[in-house]
Amino acid sequence: QTEFIEVSKKELIDSAEAGEPEALYRLGLEKLDGDKVEHMGVAYICQAAEKGHVEAQIKLSEMAAGDSEDKERWLRAAAEQGSAIAQRKLGQLYIKGGRGSKSSSVPPLLKWAKKIESTNKTEALEWLKKAADQGDTEALKILEELEQSEYRERKWKFRKKIKIAASLVWL
What we know:
mainly alpha
């Protein structure tokens, strides 16, 4: 997370005009929160993201429509720079079936396990593990829940096979 250092409005604007990513991001946030000129805020944040500012990339992913390529693009950019938050969110996006969901809540993992295609699942697990390795407790919780749901599903399938086998013995 970036720590904000107090600077004057003029210094912030001068730095943003010089193309400094942190200044662009902070000015963009100000424009989103305070002024009615929201499109300018988005433009500043987009410039910061294009220059590799991780928090700007995450912010743009949050602003992107639920099922857009932009969400995936910005999360991937931040995740590849090592952001645990972006890695977790990218993993969640892939688990949810590809390119995200409008809901920020985590659906029951058993439902996820049935929806995930193997390629998305593999990539999702890779990103979630990277986030968990950095200490992201939410990613760790998701991985644990996914493992438990897969265990329950394997156990259920095994019991079903036993019942079928038992019924065949009695024929």
